[in-house]
Amino acid sequence: MGSIERIKNVARRVAKWRAAGHQIVVVPSAMSGETNRLIGLARELQEQPDPRELDMIAATGEQVSVGLLAMALKAIGVDARSYAGWQVPVRTDSSYTKARISSIDDQRIRADLDAGRVVIVAGFQGVDDAGNITTLGRGGSDTSAVAVAAALNAAECLIYTDVDGVYTTDPRVVPEARRLSVISFEEMLEMASLGSKVLQIRSVEFAGKYRVPTRVLSSLTDPLIALDEEMKSGTLITFEEDEKMESAVVSGIAFSRDEAKITVLAVPDKPGIAYSILGPVAAANIDVDMIVQNQSVAGTTDFSFTVHRNEFQKALDVLNGQVLPAVGGREVVADNKVCKVSIVGIGMRSHVGVASLMFKTLSEEGINIQMISTSEIKTSVIVDDKYMELAVRALHKAFGLDQAA
Amino acid sequence: MGSIERIKNVARRVAKWRAAGHQIVVVPSAMSGETNRLIGLARELQEQPDPRELDMIAATGEQVSVGLLAMALKAIGVDARSYAGWQVPVRTDSSYTKARISSIDDQRIRADLDAGRVVIVAGFQGVDDAGNITTLGRGGSDTSAVAVAAALNAAECLIYTDVDGVYTTDPRVVPEARRLSVISFEEMLEMASLGSKVLQIRSVEFAGKYRVPTRVLSSLTDPLIALDEEMKSGTLITFEEDEKMESAVVSGIAFSRDEAKITVLAVPDKPGIAYSILGPVAAANIDVDMIVQNQSVAGTTDFSFTVHRNEFQKALDVLNGQVLPAVGGREVVADNKVCKVSIVGIGMRSHVGVASLMFKTLSEEGINIQMISTSEIKTSVIVDDKYMELAVRALHKAFGLDQAA
């Protein structure tokens, strides 16, 4: 939620849904800029703010939102009641700043719904078993919303965001990108993990785990737009694979520039080498994404992996400082000017030649592929990041995504 | 607490007390301006914000403060842990925006103190039996501090504020005003209720109820000042009446310009008339302060009382709209250009002629007294508010308050 005016618009939209006979639970995020303001205050006191205390502070952003939204609803005659995470309670583990929801008690929420109230639950936050306030990390409000929907067995979870749905790719890169009216959960999961910023991956995982039908809608439309028109917009994340979906081989192109590639050259090719290299990296709390180990040549192999660009230098330090002396490779070569481009589609399961078309398309554009990683429904490549937009546009066209479905 | 710099100063001061071997619980207020900012947001949505939701929002100000102070302490090597009111818990009744503390659980606090931590408890807030967040109203942080001190049976409650103690009167009105090093609890209670803004009256009541030795100190001194020097500053509110205190007949002059006087002329002088007049006023949630009923003349009497100037118009509406038609008085006359000036002193108990000296002093200055109200240790008068400063200065001198004790 942004300004007071946006809070009023949320209230109008909620009132519209309620007037249509629905029971509504709303999970607002903090007002825009608020979370950053709070973290900024913390950083003025501690370079690495204490995680428990940071959560104590950060959780207040959503607590303010829920109270304000309740007021906005009451101001237009809709009875409403707000709850902080601990009041529901939304129980989490104790991993401050990135806690995971373990359970949500639906008793208070149901009692209020039955009493005819709109219930407003603070997103992004919970409480651990010892009664400490926790937060779920960035994008946690989406996860909270899906988790509350799951706990209540809701008919649908509507996620209002600043885009109006999931696109075949980012329209800022490919103007011909089309909005998908439906996407499968598995595809959405890949899109989220591959750099599409529509939904936080953890909220998609949650939707999948509890099979919550989730719809991405725009928060920027007129809040008083007719309900059926509102439902026709956006993208529904579904768990049923219908024919229409299978007809599309590839649903979308995802990409991310937050990549860096690291290769340890000529390490001894023996059992346990992967762990010897990646163990210290994981111990330094660095997430590794793609991993490729090349064919052994003369008893040594080249071992490559990618990390988030922000953790590039940290990873290099670990490799040069700890790994290389221990495993005895020749040297570490690295490149933080790479990007990841991925094609995603549930249809890849039953169609052959999808990856080939991707490689052919990139080849025809003269784009060298540095690493490849595949799963059942996606193929990702690492290429020089100067080719990113070109690669995305070429693939979008090659897979016919610019054609109406 | 004001800015980040002030939070750092609080941390330095706390560290100093702890280094001297004390166990410390800190009850910070919100950062300056924060509570007003939050209430402002609420008012943009509802002219009369829903009290439950207002407390939900307002309580976040102190929640941010406690987290930030914990970080500031950790940053200088002092282990600390913060708690929101509900985490302690600080239990209150359900009177949103003006809740009263019913109990404070000392278990978590004591466990942390025993573990060598500084404990930081959010002031101004609590939780009711149903788990709703409540706030204590303006100045509630002082009350929280005293209540926590009482629950822990603390050696002393130190209230750091933007003045360095309790003065014989407001130094802005009388430059000769002197700081009192000691004041009795009863005198402090009268001073607080009569307009001295050093401490909120409810915090003084709490200190009295649980006999918590409470010291008012300046938050603006150098935080690293020597401890014994710091203790020599400020004012101690004590429960022991020593000789020195009895020697002073009057300890201070309090005053308030927030007054308005209302008189109902020629009401029938019959039993129940006071209730007929003040009942509807109380029902409209208007606090009445002084009440005077004059001698009956020919079966009618004039009935006067004072209200807070902010509630003047509301009170007039009640009287003209409801009371006058019902009780049949002649008319309502009113004046919101009055002030209250009071002398306060525990020595008044055992000294005669104190009120007379007050009346004589005002008479010599040509100040007409409109209403008089007395208690065991104070005498208050209502006078035209243009005489306020003159009355305070004359009384300050007449009772020898400008002389060193």
UniProtKB/TrEMBL annotation, chains A, B:
The keyword Kinase applies. It catalyses: L-aspartate + ATP = 4-phospho-L-aspartate + ADP. Its EC number is 2.7.2.4. GO terms for molecular function: kinase activity. CDD domains: AAK_AKii-LysC-BS, ACT_AK-LysC-DapG-like_2, ACT_AKii-LysC-BS-like_1. InterPro entries: AceGlu_kinase-like_sf (IPR036393), ACT-like_dom_sf (IPR045865), ACT_Aspartokinase (IPR054352), ACT_dom (IPR002912), AKii-LysC-BS (IPR041740), Asp/Glu/Uridylate_kinase (IPR001048), Asp_kin_monofn (IPR005260), Asp_kinase (IPR001341). It is an enzyme of class 2 (transferase). Belongs to the aspartokinase family. Gene3D superfamilies: Acetylglutamate kinase-like (3.40.1160.10), VC0802-like (3.30.2130.10). SUPFAM superfamilies: ACT-like, Carbamate kinase-like. The lineage of its organism: Bacteria, Pseudomonadati, Pseudomonadota, Betaproteobacteria, Burkholderiales. Pathway: Amino-acid biosynthesis; L-methionine biosynthesis via de novo pathway; L-homoserine from L-aspartate: step 1/3; Amino-acid biosynthesis; L-lysine biosynthesis via DAP pathway; (S)-tetrahydrodipicolinate from L-aspartate: step 1/4; Amino-acid biosynthesis; L-threonine biosynthesis; L-threonine from L-aspartate: step 1/5. Transmembrane segments: none annotated. This is Aspartokinase. The keyword Magnesium does not apply. Residues 262-341, 343-405 form the ACT domain. Keywords: Amino-acid biosynthesis, ATP-binding, Kinase, Lysine biosynthesis, Nucleotide-binding, Transferase.
